[in-house]
Structures are given as structure tokens and as C-alpha cells.
Amino acid sequence: RSANASHEVINVTLHTTLAATTKLVVPTPAKPILPVQTGVQAQQEEQSSGMTIFFSLLVLAICIILVHLLIKYRLHFLPESVAVVSLGILMGAFIKIIEAQKLANWKEEEMFRPNMFFLLLLPPIIFESGYSLHKGNFFQNIGSITLFSVFGTAISAFIVGGGIYFLGQADVIYKLNMTDSFAFGSLISAVDPVATIAIFNALNVDPVLNMLVFGESILNDAVSIVLTNTAEGLTRENMSDVSGWQTFLQALGYFLKMFFGSAALGTLTGLISALISFFNFGDTRINWKTPSLEFGMMIIFAYLPYGLAEGISLSGIMAILFSGIVMSHYTHHNLSPVTQILMQQTLRTVAFMCETCVFAFLGLSIFSFPHKFEMSFVIWCIVLVLFGRAVNIFPLSYLLNFFRDHKITPKMMFIMWFSGLRGAIPYALSLHLGLEPIEKRQLIGTTTIIIVLFTILLLGGGTMPLIRLIDIEDSKARKRNKKDINLSKTEKMGNTIESEHLSELTEEEYEAQYIKRQDLKGFMWFDAKYLNPFFTRRLTQEDLHHGRIQMKTLTNKWYEEVRQGPSGSEDDEQELL
User: Fold this and answer.
1) What backbone torsions phi and psi does residue 506 show, to the nearest 5 degrees?
2) Does residue 160 surpass a pLDDT of 90?
3) What is residue 402's three-state secondary structure?
4) How many CA atoms, within 13 angstroms, populate the side-chain half-sphere of residue 35?
5) What does pLDDT average to over the chain?
6) How far is CA 49 from CA 43, 46, 52, 369, 449, in A?
7) What's the CA gap between 425 and 190, in Å, rounded?
8) How far is CA 516 from CA 54, 178, 225, 466, 529, in A?
9) Distances (CA, A) of 430 to 128, 362, 467
10) Segment 241-255 mean pLDDT
11) Measured at the alpha carbon of residue 457, what is the angle toward residues 451 and 458, in degrees to the nearest 5?
12) Which residues are in the Cation/H+ exchanger transmembrane domain (predicted)?
């Protein structure tokens, strides 16, 4: 017995030691390998994916035809985003009728997949937005834009989320918990004033107002996504034993890590691309023989920060935005004129196609998803969204006016509040939330679609009459007839090549235009004095001469090919000239 007892004691001691050792040294779990489908399953998946691609391209082709008809028949008073959303609604109704008659079943193809949006459609849109920020005075208003987009978006998210939570606790609307309320407040705070910017450009409003709205909307999208990811991260973790203050600090730390880490990664990637284009493509830029190499490298760097950021659990959208801004400011000016034009037109075309596809599927979603509609929830959400936007714009504008030379007038504040339209990002984020039960997800999705359509159709449609009513448009635009006002973003992009974005300043011209200016302050002075000369290459007179010869050669070659075409009449040649 004593021997058995000793044996049991030894076993217990051994098990205890092994358990303690196991707790101390925990092996790293192997990364799961996704199952690879083969045989019949693989063929079925390929067939389904092929039909989805066909359906998406078909919808996109119909939308492009619609935009072409708007331009052809000069329906310039109608913003293209509004027209595409309306077409999507009509297409969704038509497909619903076909399915009701059992003539076809396209439910799977017309479903909008959030992963496709975040991986394929959103990165080109965000990068092109950042790449186009060279226009106007973005860096002169960087402080105001950052305050509106970061702190303003956080204020709006807390007001909407807090209002929904407390109204739910009072049994006024559908009850959501704190993290779900904050997630919805964050996603619905993403503004997308596409129609408003088109109206601003058509009416030639104050360029500072244009840049404040445009710049805020770009940074605001990334901030809204980071805030929503923060709320989702809190939902996935067990926060029952954590106090409210600790929850707030944990959410703040996660947000700061995502924001500044992603911004630093995007900035670093953009600067590396500037150095590579500065050193590696120096000979290419002088010889002008292989612009495809430059263009290919720039396309790689356009998507590189997104994949890297997502792979290390940062925000790919924030990274690709800052990368686009840095590449526009530095890298772009190290490229040959041919590559610069290729970059401009390619990014515009891809971003236009992605935006059009998203707006079309936004209209289709009215009929493609199961909905849960509650009138009280929708009305209170719209009220909170408008109120949160007002608390964002008006107090921050009055605060900024103490430090700004160009003041934000009350009329400009009102237009900024009114132009807070919602667009594709809130819609995609609402589908991406993993809310349980399913009726909660359906309620959030339905409410988001209604708010997006409300702001696009009603607020977007009322922007032009409001601008003319409060009289902040340019005097020349005020004299023009309504038919002469062009809201077509596509036509304007196709008619112009932004020559101010082409690098044609020699060392002497750059020094005269920037270095010796007395009005440059802060970051603008530091950038012009140190950063820009280090990361960008100034042209010599020989470079300019070679560049003009190359552009002239390409133009003559294109013209010769046109002359040898089937039409080739003298009248056509004269019209072309």
C-alpha cells in the first residue's frame, strides 16, 4: 500500500510539474491552411464566380452608357452619382420582377460582397483621392482638415452612437448595446460628398470651402473605418469584467495605434517610392525610352501599402491614403511626362469604374437584401446624424477662426454641414459588421441604405439651390444659365490634363517660385526648403528639351496613325487639327 501511495504521489507531482511547464511554454498555433476545393466543387465555384464577374461588368457597362448619354444630351444638371444610384434601383426592381416570374435567378450575383468592396473597389478610390490632393491648397489647410476629419468624425460618432444607445435604453427605439451603437455611429459618420464637390466645381465656389469639404471627406473615410474596426475589436473581446474607463482607454489606444501606425506606414512607403524613382529611373527619365517600367513600378507602389498594412493588422485604407498623398507630392514629379499622364488617366479611369460600380450596387441593394425597417429607428438616426454633423462643423469652425487668416464664414459653415452626404463606405461597413442576431444586422443595413439615399437624393439635390440662395458662388457662375452648368465629373476629367501636376520646373524656377517666397510658414516652408529638394528631382534645360521632343514624337506618331485610319478625309483632318 505504501508503495502504491508513493507511486500516486509521484504521478500527481509529475502531472503538476508538466501542467505548470505547459502553462509557461505555450506552443504557437500553426496558421490554418484554407481548404482547397477540387473536382466538382471547384468547377461550381468557378462557374458561380464567372457569373458574378459577368453580372458586375454588365451592370458597369450599362452605367457607363448612362453616363455617356448624360454627357451626349447635356444633362449636366444631374450629378452622375445620383443618376447611377437611380439606375441601380430600376435595375434591382427589374431583376426582382424577373425572379418573381421565375424566368431567372440572379440573387447570388446581385448580392454586394463587402470583401470585394474592401479588397478591390475601395483601395483605388482612396488612392486616387489622395493622389489628386495636389490641387488647391490642401497643405495650407492641413490643420483645419485634420481637425474636422479626426476630431469632428469622433464627435459625430460619439453623438450618434451615444444617442442610439440611450434612446434604446429608454425603449424609444430598437435597443442596441454600447459597442454596437458606437460601431453604427462610426460607420454612418463617413461622408462622401461626390455630388456636392461636382456642384462646387461647376459654380466656382470659394476654393478654401472646396478644399475643406474635399479634404475632410477623404481623411474622414479612413478615420471612420478605423473607428468602426475599433468598435468591432471591442465586440469580439470579452469586456464584461472591464470598467467603462478601461474600455475607453483600450479603445483609444487601439485607435491611435491604427491611425498613426497606418499613416506612418503609408508615408514611409510613399517616400521609398520617391527615392526609388529619384535614383533608379534617372536615366530612364532622361532617355524617355521605357515609361512602362516607371508606370509599372508606380502601380505596384499604389497597392503595396494596402496589402502590407492589412497583413500586419493595421488599416490598409489609412495607409494607402497617406501613400497616395506622399506619392502625389514627391514621387509624381520624378516621373517622365508620359508616365505622369498615364498615372493621371489610369487612376481616374479605375476610380471612376469602382465608384460607379459601388453606387450601382447601392441602388440594387434595395431589392437584393432582406430588410428590417423600423420607422422610429430611422427617423431618430437621421436626426442624430444631422445633429452630430452640426456639432462637428460649427464649434470647430469657430475655434479654427481664431488661428486662420482666411476665416470660415457662417455661410461656409452651413454649406459644410449641409454637404455631409453619406455614400458607399457606410453601406459597405454596415454589411461587414458581424452583428448577432440576424435581425439586428438587417436593421442596421436597412437604416444605413435609407440614410445614404436620403442624403444623396435630398441633400445632394438641394445643394445647388441652397448655394444660389445664400449667394456664395462665383459672380461669373451666377450669371450663367442653369443649362450651362456642368456637373459631369467624367466629362471634366476627360477634357483636361492637369498641367500644374506635371513636373516642369527647373532648379532656378523652383527656387524663385518656392524657396524665396516670404509667405510660406510652418510645414510648407520646411517642405519647400528641405523635403521637396531631397525627394524630388529638378529638371535641367536638357531634360526639358528631351521631354518635349519625346512628347512631340508620340503626338506625331499618333496623328499619323489616325490619318491612316478608314475615315481619313480632309474635312476630318481639318476638324482634328
Assistant:
1) -80, 175
2) yes
3) coil
4) 5
5) 75
6) 10, 5, 5, 19, 26
7) 7
8) 56, 54, 41, 42, 9
9) 24, 12, 32
10) 74
11) 85
12) 63-467
Strand ranges inside 335-466, DSSP E: none
The answer to whether 183 and 228 are in contact (CB under 8 A) is yes
- Residues of the chain with pLDDT > 70, as a percent, come to 69
- Summarised one tens digit per residue, pLDDT across range 555-564 is 777 667 666 6
Q: Is the dihedral of CA 289, 294, 297, 299 positive or negative?
A: negative
CB neighbour class for 329 (10 Å; exposed up to 12, middle 13-18, buried from 19)? buried
Reading the block at residue 281, the C-alpha cell is 529611373
Q: What is the distance between the alpha carbons of residues 355 and 456, in angstroms, rounded to a whole number? A: 14
Distance of alpha carbon 301 from alpha carbon 265, whole angstroms: 12
Q: How far is CA 187 from each of CA 232, 359, 428, 459, rounded to the nearest angstrom?
A: 11, 17, 9, 19
Count the Cβ atoms, other than its own, within 10 Å of residue 476. Answer: 9
Cβ–Cβ under 8 Å, residues 433 and 183: yes
Q: Which of 456, 435, 457 is nearest to 372 (CA)?
A: 435
Q: In this predicted structure, what is the pLDDT of residue 70?
A: 83
CA-nearest of 92, 70, 124 to 361 is: 92
Residue type, 371: H
Report the C-alpha gap between 331 and 342 in whole angstroms: 14
- Residue 464 sits at φ, ψ, to 5 deg, of -65, -50
Model pLDDT for residues 520-532, shown as the tens digit of each residue: 666 667 777 777 7
Angstrom distance (rounded) from CA 247 to CA 541: 60
Q: What is the pTM of this model?
A: 0.77
Closest CA to 198 of 494, 486, 495, 498: 486
Give the amino acid at 115: N
Output the nine-digit C-alpha cell for 225: 473605418
Residue 256 CB-half CA count within 13 A: 6
Residue 125, C-alpha cell as written in the block: 478610390
The Cα–Cα gap between 185 and 291 comes to 46
3-state SS class at 505: coil
Helix and strand element counts for the chain (H, E) = 28, 0
pLDDT on residue 378: 92
pLDDT class for 159, splitting at 50, 70, 90? very high
Q: How far apart are CA 204 and CA 197, in angstroms?
A: 10
Cα-Cα-Cα-Cα dihedral sign, residues 72, 74, 75, 77? positive
Query: How far is Cα 419 from Cα 97, in angstroms, rounded to an integer?
Result: 35
pLDDT given at position 369: 75
Q: How far apart are CA 126 and CA 224, in angstroms?
A: 13
- Measured CA to CA, the distance from residue 358 to residue 181 in angstroms comes to 25
